[in-house]
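Practice record 12: protein with cytidine-5'-monophosphate.
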Amino acid sequence: MPLPDLEAPADLLVETAYAKVNLALHVRARRDDGYHAFESLFVFAEHGDRLEGQADADGAIDLVIDGPFAAGLDTGSGNLVMRAAKALQDYLGTERGARLRLTKRLPVASGIGGGSADAAATLRLLARLWDARIDAGELAGLALDLGSDVPACVPSVTQMVSGRGEHLARHGVAGLEGLPMLLVNPGVAVSTAAVFSGWDGQDHGPLSADSLDQLIGAGRNDLERPAMALAPAIADILAALRGRAGLKVARMSGSGATCFALFDDDAAMGRAADAIRAERPDWWTMETRIRSA
Ligand code: C5P
C-alpha cells in the first residue's frame, strides 16, 4: 500500500480511467462512413489507469506519463488525453490550463478502452478543475469526436451501446455488478481498424441482455474470429481460461487482444489467476470486479 502523499497540493484532482469490457459485442452491419454498427453491453472494471491534474497558472496543458505501460506513448498533441484537454478548452473558450499526469496501468491497444477511458477521465477531471458548466449531452458530443468508445467511458457504468458507439442506454443486469473479473492480455497490440475490417459481413443477430444467463449463453463477440487471425495468442488465452473451476464465461473484449473471465467468487478467480500466471508469466493479468453503477 502506498503511503498517503502528505505533500499533495490541495488543488490536485484524481480520476480513475476505468478499464472497459465488452461482455458481448454483436456486429450488425458495415456502414457507408467506414464504421460498423454494433450492439454491445459495456461494463467497467473497478480498476484502470490513474489521472492526476492540477491547474496551470500559465494556461498551458502539459502531460507526463508514467507507469508500467508508459513506454513509447506520445505525450504530445496526438495523445488522446491531450486531444481531450484541448477539445474541452476550445469548447469552453477558457484560458485555464492544466498539468496532467497519467499513470498507465492498462496495456495499450488491447480492447479494454485504455485510450478511450483516459480521454473520458480527462474530460471528467478538467470539467471539475475548470468548474465547467457543461451538460452530459455536450460532453458526449466532445467525447464521440475523440473515439467511438469515449462517450460510454464518460459515465463508466454498465450500458447498452449501439450505433458506432453514440447510442447509450444504462442497462442493469441482475447479478452482474461486483462479479469477480479476470483480464488477461498476451502482450500483442491489435489495431481496432484492422480487426473490424476482417469482420466477415455476416450478421448473426441482435444482442439480448435481459439476464446474465442470456448474456453468457447467447452473447458473442463477433470480432473474436478476425482478431484471432491477427493475434493467435487470443485462442491460447481463451483455452487457458476455459474449464477453470467457478468460471461463468470467458470471452474476448472489444477488438482484442484482452480476454475477460467472470467467476463465481474471488477465490475461484484467484486460483485461476495464479495458475495462469505460473503457466504464462509473459501474459498480463488483472484481478478486478465489475464496477457498480
Ligand atoms: O472510433 P475509433 O477511432 O475508436 O475507431 C477506430 C477505428 O475502428 C475506426 O477508424 C474504424 O476503422 C474502426 N471502427 C469501426 N466501427 C466502429 C468503431 C470503430 O469500424 N463502430
